[in-house]
Design goal:
The complex is a heterodimer of chains A (295) and B (400).
Chain A lengths: L2 E2 L2 E2 H32 L6 H19 L3 H22 L9 H23 L15 E3 L4 E3 H23 L1 H11 L1 H6 L4 H23 L9 H16 L4 H21 L7 H12 L10
Antiparallel strand pairs in A: 1-2, 3-4
Helix pairs in contact in A: 1-5, 1-8, 1-9, 1-10, 2-3, 2-4, 2-8, 2-9, 3-8, 5-6, 9-10, 9-11
Chain B lengths: L1 H21 L1 E9 L10 H15 L6 E9 L4 H13 L5 E4 L3 H13 L3 E4 L16 E3 L4 H14 L4 E7 L2 H16 L3 E8 L7 H9 L4 E5 L2 H13 L8 E4 L4 H7 L1 H4 L3 E4 L7 H14 L5 H20 L4 H10 L2 E3 L3 E5 L5 E2 L2 E6 L12 E7 L1 H4 L9 H5 L1
Parallel strand pairs in B: 1-2, 1-3, 3-4, 4-5, 6-7, 6-8, 8-9
Antiparallel strand pairs in B: 10-14, 11-12, 12-13, 14-15
Helix pairs in contact in B: 2-12, 3-4, 5-6, 8-9, 12-13
Classes of the chains: A mainly alpha (295), B alpha/beta (400).
C-alpha cells in the first residue's frame, strides 16, 4: 500500500473527505456570520444558539407535529429565521449607532439565555434524531465507507453557500444590499427601504445557521450546548477568512475543515487547536484576514 | 426578687441548652454540575435524592435537623474548591455530597481533610479517590474507573473481544479510564492495538472512528463520557462500524445517554452501572418517586447520593454526634441495606462495596416504555467488580 508520512494514502483520502464534510458546517455557519457582519456590522454571538435552535426545531417538528426531516429542512430555518427577525426588530436594531461591543454583548447574552431556556426544558443529555430513511446506509468508495447522509451534507451545503454568494454578488437585490452597507442614507434616498432590508438580512443569516442545525441533527448530539462548542471555531474561521467577506468565509470554511481533518490523522491531540494557530499566523501576516479588505 | 428572676432565667437558659444538645442539626451541601454537560447526571436530581433520603430516614422524629444546600461547581476545580471553603468556613456545612468530575472531586477531598469534615462522593469516576488520594474523611459511593473497566472490559474480553483500540478523552478522567481498562484487557489475555487521544469536548468523531476501524481491533473502547460518548456512538452507527463486526465498549455510560441516543442507534451496547431503576420492586418504587420530582429516570449517581445520605444519618443517630471520625468510623464498621443498592458496606480505604451490573441496551421492539431501555446481563459481586484494597496504594491501609 502506498504510504505518505507513514499513513496509507487510502486512509488519507478518507480523512480528507471527512474534513470536507466538517468544513461544510464551518462554511455554512461562517457564511451566516459574514452576511450579518457585512451588512449589519453586528458580530452575531447568538449564532451558535440559533444553530442549536435549528436542530431543536426539527426535533420538535418531528415529535410534536409528526413532520419529518425533508419539510423540516425548509420549515425549521423559516421558523428560526422568524425568531431572528423578532430579535433584530426588538433589540438589535437599537444598537446600530453604538460601538460594535454593544452588539457583541447583547447577542452573547441573548445566546446564553436561549441556551439556558432549552437546558431547563430538555436537559443537557440530548435528544435522539434519526437519519432520514432515504439517506441511510452508505457507499463503499474503496478507501472508505461513505455514509450517504454525509455526502448529502456536502452537496446541500455547497448549494446553499453558492446560492447565497450568487444572490449577494450577482443579483440586483444583492447590489442593493451591498450599496446599503456602503452608504445607507444615499440608498434610502433612492426609495429603498433600508431598515426592512437589514431586518430580512439578519433573518436570512439566522436561517442559514438553522439550516446547518437541521443538517447536523441526525449526526451530532442534539443538545442545548451543541452550538456553543462549535461557534468558537466558526468565529476563528470568519476571522481567518476576513470579517464580512462572503466568498472568503466559504472557501476558508472548507479549507480549514480539510486542515483539521489532516491534523486528526497526524497529531489528533492538536486537532482542536490547529485552527487557532492558523488564526494567529494569518492575523500576524494579514490582519484583515485572507480575503478581507483593509478599511 | 431580682435574684430569683435571674436564677430562673439562668435555669431556663440551661434547660434550653439541654434540649439543644439532644437535637443535632446537620447541614448537607450538594456540590455538582447544575448547568453544564454533566447536569443531567447529577444536578437537581441529586438534590432530590438527598431530600428523599432525609424523608425516608424520618430525621426530624429522631432529633436530627437536616438542612440541604446546593451549588454549581461548573466542572472547574477552582470554583469547586472556593465553594467548598466557603461552605466549611462560613456556612457550617458538615457534609459535601455528589461532586462529579474527577478533578473537582480530588480538590474537594483534599480540603475536606484539611477542615476535618465529611465528603461522600458519588459523582466522580476516578479510582484515585480510594487509591493514592484517599483520606479518612472521604467515602466513594456509586462507581469508579476500576469497576467500570472490570465489569465492561472484563465481560467483553471474555466474549471474545480480545483486541482493543481506545478513543480516549484527552484529560485526567479519560486517561485513568484507559489505564484501568487496558490493565483489565491485558490481565484477561487480550491486547491493546492502539489508542487515539481526542480533544475534549469533540463533536465529530468520524475521523477517529475510521482510524479505529482501520486498526481491525475487535473492540473500540470509548474512554469518554456524556456528549462525547453520545456523539461517538451515533457516528459509529452511521459509519457502519458495528455492522462491520467491530464492537463498541462504552466504558462510562449512564441511562440518560441511552435515552439521548435512542434505542435504534444504541441497541446491543454493553456497559456497567451499579444501579438500574427497573432492577427489582424496591428500585422501581424508589425510582417512581424520583421521577415524580424530576421527570426523568434516576441513575447510579443519584442513587449513590440517596444511599450515602441514608447511611450517614444512621451514623449520626447511632453515635449521637456529627464528629467526622466517629460517624465515618461507625459507617465503616456497620454494613447497610437500602432500596437502591441492596446490601453494601464501606471499606477501610473509603470504597463503598456494592454489586455492579453488566447492562445491555434493548432492541427497539423489546422496549415497553419511555425509560424501558436496558436489560441486566449479569450481576457482578462487589469484590469482583472493585479493586482489591491491597492494590490501591491508599496510605490509610498501609498504616494498619
Amino acid at each position: 500500500m502506498t504510504m505518505i508520512f507513514g499513513v496509507p494514502t487510502a486512509a488519507l483520502f478518507g480523512q480528507l473527505l471527512l474534513g470536507l464534510i466538517n468544513g461544510s458546517f464551518y462554511a455554512m455557519l461562517s457564511l451566516g456570520l459574514a452576511v450579518i457582519f457585512g451588512l449589519l456590522n453586528i458580530i452575531n454571538f447568538t449564532h451558535g444558539a440559533q444553530y442549536m435552535m435549528g436542530a431543536f426545531a426539527s426535533w420538535m417538528l418531528l415529535n410534536y407535529l409528526g413532520i419529518g426531516y425533508w419539510p423540516a429542512l425548509i420549515l425549521a430555518p423559516l421558523i428560526v429565521g422568524a425568531t431572528g427577525i423578532i430579535l433584530e426588530r426588538l433589540l438589535i436594531s437599537r444598537l446600530y449607532n453604538l460601538d460594535h461591543l454593544y452588539g457583541l454583548l447583547l447577542t452573547f447574552g441573548v445566546g446564553l439565555i436561549i441556551q439556558g431556556l432549552f437546558r431547563n426544558q430538555y436537559g443537557v443529555s440530548g435528544l435522539p434524531y434519526g437519519i432520514p430513511s432515504q439517506l441511510t446506509g452508505g457507499q463503499n468508495l474503496g478507501f472508505m465507507f461513505m455514509p450517504n447522509y454525509r455526502g448529502w451534507v456536502v452537496v446541500a451545503s455547497l448549494i446553499v453557500c453558492l446560492a447565497t454568494w450568487f444572490i449577494i454578488e450577482k443579483t440586483r437585490l444583492g447590489a442593493y444590499l451591498r450599496a446599503a452597507t456602503e452608504n445607507p442614507t444615499l440608498v434610502q434616498a433612492f426609495g429603498i427601504n433600508v431598515p426592512l432590508m437589514i431586518t430580512l438580512t439578519y433573518g436570512a443569516g439566522v436561517a442559514l445557521a438553522a439550516f446547518a442545525g437541521v443538517l447536523a441533527a441526525p449526526i451530532y448530539s442534539v443538545n442545548p450546548n451543541m452550538g456553543a462548542d462549535l461557534i468558537i471555531v466558526v468565529f476563528a474561521v470568519v476571522v481567518i477568512g476576513g470579517m464580512g467577506s462572503i466568498l472568503g468565509s466559504i472557501i476558508t470554511g472548507f479549507a480549514l475543515g480539510l486542515v483539521e481533518g489532516l491534523t486528526k490523522v497526524f497529531y489528533p491531540e492538536a486537532s482542536s487547536t490547529v485552527i487557532f494557530v492558523i488564526m494567529v499566523l494569518v492575523l500576524l501576516v494579514k490582519p484583515a484576514g485572507l480575503f478581507g479588505r483593509t478599511a | 426578687m431580682r435574684k430569683t428572676a435571674t436564677a430562673l432565667a439562668v435555669a431556663g437558659l440551661l434547660m434550653g441548652a439541654g434540649t439543644a444538645q439532644a437535637q443535632i442539626s446537620v447541614k448537607l451541601g450538594v456540590l455538582n454540575d447544575r448547568s453544564g454537560v454533566y447536569s443531567d447526571l447529577g444536578g437537581e436530581g441529586s438534590v432530590v435524592a438527598a431530600r428523599m433520603a432525609v424523608e425516608d430516614f424520618k430525621a426530624e422524629s429522631k432529633g436530627i435537623k437536616v438542612e440541604i444546600v446546593s451549588a454549581d461547581h461548573q466542572n472547574k476545580p477552582d470554583i469547586g474548591a472556593s465553594i467548598t471553603r466557603k461552605w466549611y468556613d462560613q456556612d457550617n456545612v458538615d457534609v459535601i455530597l455528589d461532586v462529579p468530575t474527577s478533578s473537582v472531586a480530588l480538590a474537594v477531598a483534599q480540603i475536606t481533610k484539611e477542615k476535618n469534615k465529611v465528603h461522600l462522593n458519588s459523582g466522580a469516576a476516578t479510582s484515585d479517590l480510594t487509591g493514592p488520594a484517599c483520606t479518612a474523611n472521604t467515602l466513594h459511593w456509586a462507581y469508579d474507573t476500576v469497576q467500570l473497566a472490570n465489569v465492561t472490559g472484563g465481560a467483553m474480553v471474555r466474549q471474545g473481544g480480545d483486541s482493543w483500540y481506545f478513543l480516549t478523552a484527552d484529560y485526567a478522567f479519560g486517561h485513568a479510564l484507559e489505564r484501568d481498562t487496558s490493565a483489565v484487557v491485558k490481565k484477561n489475555g487480550g491486547k491493546v492495538i492502539g489508542t487515539v487521544r481526542t480533544p475534549f469536548p469533540s463533536s465529530d468523531f468520524s475521523s477517529f472512528l475510521l482510524q479505529a476501524q482501520a486498526s481491525k481491533a475487535k473492540v473500540i473502547g470509548l474512554a469518554n463520557a456524556g456528549g462525547d460518548t453520545v456523539n461517538a456512538i451515533k457516528q459509529a452507527s452511521e459509519f457502519g462500524i458495528t455492522q462491520g463486526g467491530q464492537k463498541l465498549g462504552g466504558l462510562l455510560v449512564f441511562v440518560n445517554d441511552i435515552k439521548a441516543l435512542g434505542l435504534k442507534v444504541a441497541q446491543g451496547l454493553n456497559f456497567s452501572e451499579t444501579f438500574y431503576w427497573d432492577y427489582n420492586d424496591s428500585t422501581r418504587a424508589w425510582s417512581k418517586r424520583f421521577m415524580g420530582h424530576m421527570n426523568r429516570a434516576p441513575n447510579m449517581t443519584n442513587a449513590g447520593v440517596y444511599s450515602s445520605v441514608l447511611h450517614y444519618l444512621r451514623g449520626v443517630e447511632a453515635t449521637k454526634s456529627k464528629d467526622p471520625a466517629k460517624v465515618i468510623g461507625w459507617m465503616k464498621a456497620n454494613p447497610f441495606e437500602d432500596a437502591v443498592f441492596g446490601k453494601g458496606y464501606v471499606r477501610e480505604d473509603g470504597r463503598v462495596m456494592i454489586d455492579a451490573f453488566l447492562l445491555e441496551v434493548k432492541k427497539p421492539e423489546e422496549s415497553k416504555g419511555e425509560w424501558d431501555l436496558l436489560k441486566v446481563v449479569t450481576k457482578v459481586p462487589a469484590d469482583q467488580a472493585f479493586r482489591p484494597m491491597s492494590e490501591g496504594n491508599c496510605p490509610l491501609v498501609k498504616k494498619n
